[in-house]
Write a structure and sequence with these properties.
There is one protein chain. The protein has an eight-stranded mixed β-sheet, with helices on both faces. It is built from five helices and eight strands, in the order βββαβαβαββαβα. The longest helix has 16 residues. By secondary structure, the chain is of the alpha/beta class. The protein starts with a strand and ends in a 7-residue tail after the last helix. Helix 1 packs parallel to helix 5. The chain has one domain: Alpha/Beta hydrolase fold, catalytic domain (Rossmann fold, 3-Layer(aba) Sandwich), CATH 3.40.50.
């Protein structure tokens, strides 16, 4: 089924999203990079993440944070965006997707992590280029939900060496992949993101019928 435009309510705002609904309970919500720097749900990396889950038969929901595209409201400094994520997860829950994955790129990965302890229904957290060099991640302690982290070898916003140092705190058993010749924007390497996530999902049995 192709993606269809949907809207859901978050904290009194109408949020715009794209839903591709598949049979079964497997699902993912995908979040985008920083709204103040052009981030939105049509970003190339967001599409690459969404494609990986689609190819594995997951229902996918990517959406624009408040103030982006046709989503109402204004940028929420990471606080309002957590409410958008909570509402997206609730939207999936109402459609029978009760334990979705949560995946995000750059700012989206940061906001996902920021609210993780309050997103009880989340099954797994997938982070692409978490911006550890520019945003504080000290709040994120150990969580078994942190299961896959991807960055580019040339990514100065999510440097591999910084992430490698943080992984033992987040989850020493999490998978970590560094894509050669890719920087933060993945003009080269977006297809590799899709491939890595597909392989990751192939190796996980904690999916729903």
């Amino acid at each position: 089924m192709p993606e269809k435009k949907i809207f859901f309510n978050a904290d009194g705002f109408r949020i715009e999203g794209l839903l591709d609904e598949q049979p079964g309970e497997n699902a993912v919500a995908v979040t985008h990079p920083h709204p103040l720097y052009g981030g939105q749900m049509h970003n190339n990396v967001v599409k690459a993440i969404t494609a990986a889950y689609h190819l594995k038969g997951f229902t996918t929901l990517r959406f624009n944070f408040r103030g982006v595209g046709r989503s109402e409201g204004t940028h929420g400094q990471g606080v309002g965006e957590q409410e958008d994520i909570r509402a997206a997860l609730a939207y999936l829950h109402k459609r029978g997707k009760t334990s979705p994955d949560l995946a995000g790129y750059s700012f989206g990965a940061w906001v996902n992590a920021l609210g993780l302890e309050n997103f009880d229904s989340v099954n797994r957290l997938v982070m692409v280029s978490p911006p550890v060099a520019v945003l504080d991640f000290s709040f994120l302690g150990f969580s078994p939900k942190v299961q896959l982290v991807i960055t580019g070898a040339q990514d100065e916003i999510a440097p591999p060496e910084m992430i490698r140092d943080m992984l033992p705190v987040w989850n020493p058993e999490a998978e970590f992949h560094v894509i050669p010749d890719s920087d933060h924007f993945y003009w080269r390497g977006a297809d590799e993101i899709t491939s890595i996530i597909r392989t990751f999902l192939d190796g996980k049995a904690e999916t729903h019928p």
